[in-house]
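Recall the central idea of this unit: under ordinary conditions, the amino acid sequence of a chain determines the structure it adopts. In this exercise we apply that idea directly, starting from the sequence alone.
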Amino acid sequence: MDTQATGVERNAITEGVIWKQILLFFFPILFGTFFQQLYNAADALIVGRFVGKEALSAVGGGTGTVINLLVGFFVGLASGATVIISQYYGAKRGEMVGYAVHTAIAFSLVGGLVMTVCGLLSAPWILQAMDTPEDVLEPATLYIRIYFLGMVGNLVYNVGSGILRAVGDSRRPLYFLIASCLTNIVLDIVLVVALHMGVAGAALATILSQLLSAVLVIWVLMRTKDMHRLELKKIGFDWRMFKRIIRIGFPAGLQSVMYSLSNIIIQTAINGEGTDTVAAWTVYGKLDVVFWMIVSAFGIAITTFVGQNYGAGKIDRVRKGIRSCLGMTVVSTVVVSTLLYVTCGGIYTLFTDDTEVLRIGVEMTRFLVPTYITYICIEILSGALRGVGDCWIPTLICLTGVCLIRVIWIMAAVPRIPGVRSIIFSYPLTWVITTVLFGIYYIFFSKIHRSAGTQ
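Accordingly, the structure predicted from this sequence is:
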C-alpha cells in the first residue's frame, strides 16, 4: 500500500473545498489550545480560591511571562521543523520527512534539558528585575523552579504535536491535551486543596500532566505507518536538516523572545501598580487567552495549509486559503470580543471576590477586547508567510511594529501619562502599526504574490 499517498488523501489539505479543509484542521487545534489553557486557568482558579491573591499572582503574571520567554524561543526554533515537514509531506518526499522528524525530536530532548538549566538559574533573577511585589516573589520563584523541572516533557509534546499537525493530523494532539487537562485538574484538587501544597502543588500538577501528553504523542508517532513514523534508534541530528530547521525557525524564536521581552517591560509597569493590579492582570490573561487561542489556531491552520499546498505547487489555492482564513478569523473575533465585553464581570468572580481586583480587571478587559480585531492580519499573514518559508521580513516587521514601539511607549509615554490604561494602550497602538506594515509587505513584496503559480 502507498502510505504516502494515503496520508495526503486522508488529510485532503491539498484537495477539496478550501474553507472546509481549513475549518476541519482549525477546530481540533482550537479545542486543543482550549484544553491547554484550561489547565493553566485551573491552576489560577484553584490557587486563587484556596490559597489567596498573592498565590494567584505567583502562578500567573510575571511567572507566565518568564515561561513564555524561555519556552517560546525554543518552540519558535522548532517551528521550522513544522514548516519543512509540511512542505515535504505535501510534495510526498518521505525520506526528507523522516530526517526532519528524528532531528526535531532530538532537538526537543536536548533543548528541554538546556531550558531546565536556564530556567532554574535565570528565572528568579528575572522575577526580581521585573519588580515583582515582595509578597509574590517567594511563591513565584518556587512555582517557576518546579515548572522548569518538567521542561523536557513540555518541549517533546510541543514538537511532537507540531509534527502531527504538519502532516494534517490535528485531532490526536487534541485528545492528548484533553487527557492532560483532566489529569491536571485532578492533581490540582489533590495537591492544592487536599494536601495544601499551595503553588508547589499547582506547579507539580502541571509538569506531571505535560509529561503524560509527551508520552502519548511519542507513542502515536512510533505507531504510525505513514512517512512521519518515529523510530527511537533513529533519533539524532541530521545536521543538514537541522540547519534548515534553524534557518526557518530562528526568526520565529527571535520574534517570540522579543514579544516576551516587551511583555516583561509591560509586566514590570503592571507590577509597579501593586498586588491588586497584578492579580487583575493575571485573571485578565485567562480571559484574554480565549481570543489568542482562536487566532493562533487559525494561524497554525493556515501555516500547514499553505506549507502543504506550496509544496504541491498549488499557489492559487494558497492565496484563496489565506483570504478564506482572514474572513473566518474576522467573524470569530467579533463574536469573542462581544462575549468577553459583556460577560467579563461575572467571569472575574470565579477567580476572586476581592472588589478592587474585580474593578481593575473589568476596566482592563472592556478597554482591550474591542481592539482585538486590529491584530488579526498579523497572525494570519505571518502564519501564511512562514508556510512558504518567508520568515525574516515578517519577523523584522513584528520586531519593529510590535516590540520596539511597545517598549518606546512604555518607557517614554507611560511616565508622562501614568496609570493602567496608559500601560495597556501599548497593545492596540502597536497592533495597528504592525498590521499596516504587514499589509504593505504581503500585497507588494511577498513571494506568495510574486510567485507565478509554481514553486
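The two ends are 29 Å apart (CA to CA).
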